[in-house]
Amino acid sequence: MSLPSWCPQYDGRKHDPKTGEDLYCICKKPDSGELMVGCDGCDDWFHFSCLKIPENYRDLVFSFYCSYCTAGITGPALTNGGKLPKTLWKRKCRLRDCYRECDSASNSKYCSKKHGLQYVQDVVERLQLPNVDKIGLLRQLLTETASLEEFKKLGRDKLPEVSLPLSIERYNNLIENDRQLKNLTKERDELVSNKLLKLAAEEGEIGKYICWVNEVNDKLLPQLAQPAARKKSKTSTKVTICGYHDEFAIPCAVEVFLDELIELKEEEDSICSSVKSICVKTKCAKHQDWIQLAQNEIAEQKEALENVKKRLDLLINVRTNQLRVSFFEQ
């Protein structure tokens, strides 16, 4: 895929050799505070103005890929077999001058109920019905129909019968046999059944291991402190071990582990840094904050997979709507 006519050839510079300032965008200029969007492929930042994107669309970006990534020059296409990514947009409110996202929770075409009513009012105002109170007519129609379904049925009796062979069976066949939709659905289902479930199981195992380490530390005795420190101090000092294990695997019951740990620690001149591959240092700089780091890593992976699922759900919805339109056009 080629670059747009307005986009210059790729320039890999990240810093200005004279000033040392960071360079961004296709213009290769420093950040001046102008509105920018980050590329999900190459992690560079780009000015809306340089990309010919109106600033009104700032809240409608769902997943952005720059021209270099979509052309396969940078980004994921270099590592995923040449598959070119595409920028995805959130669905814009149907009201002309509104640039907010549609209310996806209610599957609405508008960002709010207020804008939905405003759109209908604007449509009614454009109707060419001389000497007719158009808003009053609309209110009358809505008042005299008990439900939305009844309102949709208004005037159907006057329409000629359609003889086209539109059937549920044909529609279902069209949906079920579409290769693109099947591939998207398969990818989404595999993501849910494999990666997300596996990550949830991993999160549970890490959580159990952290609870096990906390229980060990709760039951540790002050006698694990260094003998010299015990002689100098008249008060008992709480001792805690690092507890890091590269596989986050619980080796045995807490009591069994404590017995072995205390036995090794009480041996004369014994230097014990690990028990059953678990770090038992009381002051460990190497594995500092490992609990928080492990939890953060799981949270980041989970968020990334959830974003992928949202994108697949969106693509499935878009493709399904395309097939519906195609079916009824036929």
TrEMBL record:
<keyword id="KW-0539">Nucleus</keyword>
<feature type="domain" description="PHD-type">
    <location>
        <begin position="22"/>
        <end position="72"/>
    </location>
</feature>
<dbReference type="Pfam" id="PF00628">
    <property type="entry name" value="PHD"/>
</dbReference>
<dbReference type="InterPro" id="IPR013083">
    <property type="entry name" value="Znf_RING/FYVE/PHD"/>
</dbReference>
<keyword id="KW-0479">Metal-binding</keyword>
<keyword id="KW-0175">Coiled coil</keyword>
<dbReference type="InterPro" id="IPR019786">
    <property type="entry name" value="Zinc_finger_PHD-type_CS"/>
</dbReference>
<keyword id="KW-0863">Zinc-finger</keyword>
<dbReference type="InterPro" id="IPR001965">
    <property type="entry name" value="Znf_PHD"/>
</dbReference>
<protein>
    <submittedName>
        <fullName>WGS project CCBQ000000000 data, contig 00104</fullName>
    </submittedName>
</protein>
<keyword id="KW-0862">Zinc</keyword>
<dbReference type="InterPro" id="IPR011011">
    <property type="entry name" value="Znf_FYVE_PHD"/>
</dbReference>
<dbReference type="InterPro" id="IPR037869">
    <property type="entry name" value="Spp1/CFP1"/>
</dbReference>
<dbReference type="GO" id="GO:0008270">
    <property type="term" value="F:zinc ion binding"/>
</dbReference>
<feature type="coiled-coil region">
    <location>
        <begin position="291"/>
        <end position="318"/>
    </location>
</feature>
<dbReference type="GO" id="GO:0045893">
    <property type="term" value="P:positive regulation of DNA-templated transcription"/>
</dbReference>
<dbReference type="InterPro" id="IPR019787">
    <property type="entry name" value="Znf_PHD-finger"/>
</dbReference>
<dbReference type="GO" id="GO:0048188">
    <property type="term" value="C:Set1C/COMPASS complex"/>
</dbReference>
